[in-house]
Amino acid sequence: MPSVFVQGRPTASYPPFAPEARRGSVRRVTEVGEGVLHRPCRDVTEFGPDLTALIDDMFRTMYVAEGAGLAANQVGVDLRLFVYDCPDDEGVRHVGHIVNPVLEPLDPAARRLLDEGEGCLSVPGAVMAVPRPDRAVVRGLDKDGAPLLVEGTGYFARCLAHETDHVNGQVYLDRLSGRERKAALRQSADRREEVFARRAANAAAFARDRTADGATGA
Q1: Distance CA 58, CA 55 (A)
Q2: Looking at residue 212, what is its pLDDT?
Q3: Is 218 a member of any domain?
Q4: Tens digits of per-residue pLDDT, 79-92?
Q5: Which of the following is catalytic: 20, 90, 104, 163?
Q6: CA triplet 196, 66, 132: central angle to 5 degrees?
Q7: Other C-beta atoms within 10 Å of 147: how many?
Q8: What is the rounded distance in angstroms from the CA atom of residue 213 to the CA atom of residue 218?
Q9: Which residue of 43, 78, 138, 147 has the smallest Cβ count within 10 Å?
């Protein structure tokens, strides 16, 4: 089996970071409680350089924040779009973006729920067990408007479901009990400064890498 799938298609080789991240800029990650995270996003209807630039910025922001996925409303943009760079449980890497994603309903008899740890860049530092199906199928479009279908299992299925929740105005805290939600918010309050310090260090490292690339003409 190929070790990397890009936009749902097998790829022979791929760099450690998606090329989009080299072109992008870091944006501020929104946090739970901000309105843009808690309402359904608008469909993308315009395809072109602005959308491409947003995707570039989202990839760079995701890597700096050490995420496996990032939705547009997590950088304050009210559009149905997410990017991802996420392994599945077999160690296969999945990289790409999905515009106007829709999570297909699965036959309950053919799915298995996995109750495993889940975090969110918009709830910095918190990790809680969230039940998710072990398989996910998402349909949408690519940045050029071409139809796209991406399937995932295990941890990658969790990522696809988590990010599709975001564009529908849900955060993973919405799937927790009141007590669990409070515990997650306490975790985040305790770890927030540490998380933000790490993000700042990562942003500086990315900037140095891009400067070095420019100096060598790479």
Answers
A1: 5
A2: 54
A3: no
A4: 999 999 999 999 99
A5: 163
A6: 115
A7: 8
A8: 5
A9: 147
> Residue 34 is encoded by which pair of tokens?
């901000």
How far apart (Å, rounded) are the C-alpha atoms in residues 123 and 32? 6
Tokens for 126, please give them: 């918190």
User: Is 214 inside any structural domain?
Assistant: no
Distance CA 94, CA 3 (A): 9
Count other Cβ atoms within 10 Å, centred on residue 95.
20
Instruction: Give the phi and the psi of residue 97 in degrees, each rounded to 5.
Output: -140, 155
C-beta of residue 162 within 8 angstroms of C-beta of residue 69? yes
Number of domains in the chain: 1
Which two tokens mark 203?
């942003």
178 found inside a domain: yes
pLDDT at 207: 87
Q: Residue 163 catalytic?
A: yes
Average pLDDT of the segment spanning 135-154? 96
Q: Position of tokens 């990315």?
A: 206
Q: Is residue 212 part of a domain?
A: no
The two structure tokens encoding residue 84: 């991802």
Which CATH number goes with the domain that contains 83?
Answer: 3.90.45.10
Q: pLDDT digit string (tens) for 17-67?
A: 999 999 999 999 999 999 999 999 999 999 999 999 999 999 999 999 999
Domain span holding position 64: 4-207
Radius of gyration of the chain (CA): 17
**Model-level pTM?**
0.93
